[in-house]
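Hey, quick one: can you model this chain's 3D structure?
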Amino acid sequence: MKKRVAIFISGGGSNMVSLVEDMADPDHPAKPVLVLANSADAGGLAKASDLGVPVVSVDHRPFKGDRPAFEAALNAELDKVSPDILCLAGFMRVLTEGFVAPWEGRMLNIHPSLLPKYKGLHTHSRALEAGDNEHGCTVHMVTPVLDDGPILGQARVPVEKDDTAETLAARVLVKEHQLYPACLRRFAAGDTTRVDL
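Sure thing. Here's the predicted structure for all 197 residues.
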């Protein structure tokens, strides 16, 4: 029985696309059952629809900072499709412990740094400012602590001397599109062995 996967996005959904395309493999242990965005304007919704995945948006703005109410609306949509695994793929809302706790051990996230370095935002510029000679991305299980939790995989890229935050981000994104599908494929099969690319 394939694991049912819901994917949360906020923008263009490039990591979502890489996950969905990988799950199109008939031998994949999981299948996408929903792509959910926190804005109807998220470009990834149209991409998911084109790939045949059901989509829904739950706009966070009407909730005016009432995170529990927003998260109750998210859960109402998840209840309709009964996912086994939740993948955060560029979802730019911080989720509370009340939402995360029931999903702990079943929720994954991709973060554009080599965690535990550079939790939070602006990871590429922070890596450059620190003079790092390598940077990358991390797939981890989500816990109530932001950008924390057991690491399932990392991919590394060298930092070039003429890199900007934008050029570095572009190279890291290529690795994200390889790492996240590899980690989800193993995780859905019950294998939490670390993936390193």
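One thing worth noting: The chain has a mean pLDDT of 97.
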